[in-house]
Amino acid sequence: MSPSLVFLFLLLLSPLQPSAASSSSSSPVDVLPVAGQSAYDILAGFNFPAGLLPQGATGYELDPSTGRFRAYFNGTCSFSLEGSYQLKYKSVIGGYISENRLTQLTGVSVKILFLWLNIVEVVRSGDDIDFSVGIASASFGIDNFFVCPRCGCGLDCGGEGGASKPARRPFVSSI
């Protein structure tokens, strides 16, 4: 049985996960952005590459006491990577950021087979970045995220090259 079918089977059998959004998600972030820093700089400060976010982040908020983080875009953004993964970013993405870890992520989803699944956690483990959709995860080499993808075309934007296709290990069960 293919890994994709196994993943889909496990997904359908798993209990529904509660929403990562909680009542605290509606409270405003108390700390405003630091002048001269971008959302990409904040990612770097927590040991993440800038390419986790597509180009075009217009701002961010960070509460250093809780790690609550939000990044803003002018609109939704979608693109394909490697022809097999479609990613979609909402105009506001958020979660909690700490060294090597983004948790309770909201606003980012990936299409697997015919289902859109929310990416709920991103973890850097050495030279790998692991993405979790709850019961399954995929791991990619960090060097795939040095370049920020562009809305609409991802890393394959016709002649602007330089970015290689991500080397990946497909979504696999985390059980």
Automatic annotation (TrEMBL):
Annotated signal peptide: 1-21
What's the domain of life for this entry?
Answer: Eukaryota
Keyword Membrane in annotation: no
What are the UniProt keywords, alphabetically?
Signal
User: Which residue ranges run through the membrane?
Assistant: none
Q: Which Pfam families match?
A: DUF538
Q: What is this protein called?
A: Uncharacterized protein
Q: Whose protein is this, by species?
A: Linum tenue
